[in-house]
Amino acid sequence: GQGVEQPDNLMSVEGTFARVNCTYSTSGFNGLSWYQQREGHAPVFLSYVVLDGLKDSGHFSTFLSRSNGYSYLLLTELQIKDSASYLCAGTGGYKVVFGSGTRLLVSP
Amino acid sequence: GALVYQYPRRTICKSGTSMRMECQAVGFQATSVAWYRQSPQKTFELIALSTVNSAIKYEQNFTQEKFPISHPNLSFSSMTVLNAYLEDRGLYLCGASRTGVNQDTQYFGPGTRLLVL
Fold it and tell me: Given an 8 Å threshold on Cβ–Cβ distance, is B46 in contact with A93?
């Protein structure tokens, strides 16, 4: 079947890191995308992963394990402005299935 | 980079009337265009997916009769919300997938926020 699961909320502290987890069971899975969405705005594309392992993109890094249906988005050196919702989306063909998003709150 | 525009950004319509929204991919040709609705307190719901050389495919709970879509070329799509009611309010997002690398990645427009009175 198709399903993308994320925790609802995550809290962390400025200057540290946060890991946003995502599990999925998307049939015909090709890749997994991560988006950042701020309240009242459209999601902004962050990263697309299709290969297993860690993809280091600086402030945002992503990890994928296809055999386990698991991915995470890692934010390092957190800033207050990183507070937002982070959505993972599994892709099967042209279809994109979104998780409900994880609301990250970064405190001082 | 890939840009997707949507128009209008915000709109208000009276209950029972209809409104049309547009989506334009700039700088690339979109192999597919998907329309989503994000209702208050909800995640994205896929309304329909329009892919090159294929018929527009609507998801369960969404119909062509309610949300007719036009996709005349690889850069432009429009969707109309017919006979809008309160449950149709929300942020309507257009996601366009580009050809080439990361073909499955969708780039979103800023959305059209619909308020129904």
Answer: no
Question: Per DSSP, which regions of chain B are E strands?
Answer: 3-7, 10-13, 19-26, 30-38, 44-51, 57-58, 69-73, 76-81, 90-98, 106-108, 112-116
Residues 6+ apart with CB under 8 A from A10: A18, A20, A102, A103, A104, A105
Average per-residue pLDDT for chain A: 88
Contacts of B38-44 spanning 24+ positions with Cβ under 8 A: B38/B90, B38/B91, B38/B92, B38/B93, B38/B111, B39/B87, B39/B89, B39/B90, B40/B89, B40/B90, B42/B90, B43/A87, B43/A98, B43/A99, B43/A100, B43/A101, B44/A87, B44/A98, B44/B93
Contacts of B51 in chain A (CB under 8 A): 94
CB contact A65 to B (< 8 Å): no
Q: Give the chain B residue nearest A99 (alpha carbons).
A: B43
Nearest Cα of chain A lies from the Cα of B50 at a distance, in angstroms, of 9
A90-99 mean pLDDT:
74
- Asked whether the predicted pLDDT for residue A93 surpasses 70, the reply is no
Task: Please check the confidence at residue B53 and state whether its pLDDT lies above 80.
Answer: no
Cβ-nearest to B109 among A31, A42, A97:
A42
pLDDT band (50, 70, 90) for residue B86: very high
